[in-house]
Amino acid sequence: MSRLLSRRDRRPAAPSAEQLKDAVGGLIAAIDAGGEQLPAAEVEAARKVLRKASERLELVGDHTIVALAGATGSGKSSTFNRLVGSAVSTVGMLRPTTTTISSAVWGDDPANELLDWVGSANRHRVSRERAERSGVGSDLDGLVLLDLPDVDSHRVAHRAEADRVLALADVFVWVTDPQKYADGILHEDYLRRLRTHEAVTLVVLNQADRLAPEEAEACSDHLHRLLVEDGLPNAEVLLVSARTGQGLDDLRGALAGAVRAATASRVRLVGDLYQAAADLRAHVGDGEASVSVEPDEALVSGLARTAGVPVVLDGVERDYRTRAAAHTGWPLTRWLRSARPDPLRRFRLDQTVLGGGSRAGRGKQTAQDQEIGAVLARSSLPEATPAARAAVATLMRRLGTKASQGLPPLWADAVETAAGPNEKDLGDALDQAIVGTPLRERNPFWWYVAGALHWLMLLCAVGGLLWLMLLWAMSAAMLPLPHTPTYSGVPVPTGMFLGGLLGGLLITLLCLPLVRAGARRRRRVIESRLDRAIREVAKNRLLAPQSEILGRHRRVRENLDRVLATRA
After folding, report:
1. Alpha carbons 402 and 416: distance in angstroms, whole number
2. pLDDT score, position 491
3. The CA-based dihedral angle spanning residues 205, 207, 212, 215, taken in that order and rounded to the nearest 10 degrees
């Protein structure tokens, strides 16, 4: 880019407009993904950089903003006047005299909008014709040169104004002198903090005419060593004398090169973006732990015990047997079965049938009614034992510790918090999972077959009994008895009566193993169904929040690395 950007083999190439745009997008994406897990101060500083980048890109045009900055008495304003070719800026030797920003614009475009953005009230325009006549640099068209208040001013307002404008400049020209070039304010408060802007930094050692050549060379070498310590090993040092004009041609050539390249603004902005990304990157880990999207068996089992799933499964098995007996048992004794308490009703789970909702009124409820019912529905399952709660808490702590490995404190705390939600909220979610799980299915077809056979046997026995009672009554009344048919020597009425009773008993005995097998099968089906429901709670309430935070951390890391790679 010129002597300002000399030693090209050591400095990164100027970023393209696409790279700058990519860096801006990466920083925005990182901030958006970081949320509360990025420090507020660094985020706000990054947002300021983004706002400045947006404003500067809108005003970029063909201008390059160069800020002359330095300490009191270093000859900053004198250098400014020599570059401009007239006494535009007030010169003082001991006390800070630059109270407002003086600006000089080379070319026909007055750059008023840009100077309004910078905040320069004292403006001077160096036209092409005037520059050619006075020899102050006819090849500087597009240069906006600013004379800043002294950075070591005892007036706080002056220094604050200088800092404000330095944040907006594209190129920094630091003017110092043999007496102040090692000053701590210059190096510690400014140069060291601007090490990411080395490509747009130039140091001018003024008053070189007061030194012998060997002394000037020694001062220049010492100043360069200090710059290396500041993290600016490639920053160029120019020996200049604003009084005699020594070295001013080199300074003009450096500025002309920066103007011709027209990339200083991008270099500066990328430096700002790099610094903001680096500050945020310090609060982001180098990777994320691998977290399974599926909960392990230990966690599911612990949550199931906490939610009372074993109690529910025992109730499901008893409920199946009770309802099977009510359908397949001896019809005359079924009313005794109905007097027994419903195993699921005692836990308020008797309405969770296949398809959800209660049988009564199912199909009449609106979607809103069903949603409200799901929110209000609660079971009456017994509370988990302290041992079960402690076991789940231990599992969640282990889960959070594993997922937060290698993360900075804010991210680790967020992951561990996500792995251990409020116990009441988790309990409500588990209870809702159970309440919302259908615990009954349609009755097996064989129940109805067995029930029909029972009624057939009952009718047979009742018919035989009535026949026998009629014969007994006729015998007691000494009425002639009709012929009673027999079958294999057994009177038909007696066979009907005894056969009906024995047939009913046989059907009951045959149904018992079927009922036990069906109850076990129903238990396994509901156990699988509840297992899926508990897994969904674990995924949605424990693993998904963790994965979401780790995913955000990954996006922040990748986007910040993308910004940092812009200057690689």
Report:
1. 9
2. 87
3. -30
Query: In angstroms, rounded to a whole number, what is the distance separating the alpha carbons of residues 160 and 511?
Result: 93
Nearest residue to 116 (alpha-carbon basis) of 77, 66, 168: 168
Q: How many Cα atoms sit within 13 Å of 251 on the Cβ side?
A: 29
Give the least confident one: 70-79, 363-372, 392-401: 363-372
Which SS3 state, helix, strand or coil, does residue 143 take? strand
List 126's β-bridge partners, or say none. 106
How far, in Å, CA of 303 to CA of 297, rounded? 10
Q: Write the DSSP assignment of 154-222 as a string of letters.
A: SSHHHHHHHHHHHTT-SEEEEEE-TTTTT-HIIIIIIITTTGGGGGGEEEEE--GGGS-HHHHHHHHHH
Confidence of residue 365 (pLDDT cuts 50, 70, 90): very low
Rounded CA separation 72/178 (Å): 13
CB 324 within 8 A of CB 511: yes
Q: Which residues contact 382 (CB under 8 A, 6 or more apart)?
A: 308, 311
Q: Please give the order of strands across the beta sheet that includes 236-239.
A: 122-126, 102-106, 143-147, 64-70, 171-176, 201-205, 236-239
Which phi and psi angles does 310 have, rounded to 5°?
-55, -40
pLDDT attached to residue 371: 45
E strand or H helix that includes residue 337: helix 334-338
Mean pLDDT confidence for 110-116: 85
Q: How many CA atoms lie within 13 A of 31 on its CB side?
A: 22
Indicate if the pLDDT at residue 21 is higher than 80. yes
* Pairing label, strands 486-487, 490-491: antiparallel
Q: Which residues contact 281 (CB under 8 A, 6 or more apart)?
A: 557, 560, 561, 564
Rg (Cα) of the chain, in Å, rounded?
A: 45
pLDDT band at 122 (very low <50, low <70, confident <90, very high): confident
Supply the mean pLDDT for the chain: 81
Q: Tens digit of pLDDT for each residue in 50-62?
A: 998 888 777 756 7
Return the C-alpha torsion angle 453, 458, 459, 465, nearest 10: 150
Taking a C-beta distance cutoff of 8 angstroms, is the pair 83, 102 a contact? Answer: no
Say if residues 248 and 135 touch (Cβ distance below 8 Å). Answer: no
Backbone angles phi and psi of 63, in degrees to 5: -105, 150
For 245, 499, 511, 515, the CA distances from 505, given in Å and listed in that order, are 124, 10, 10, 15
What would the mean pLDDT of 385-404 be, rounded to a whole number?
76
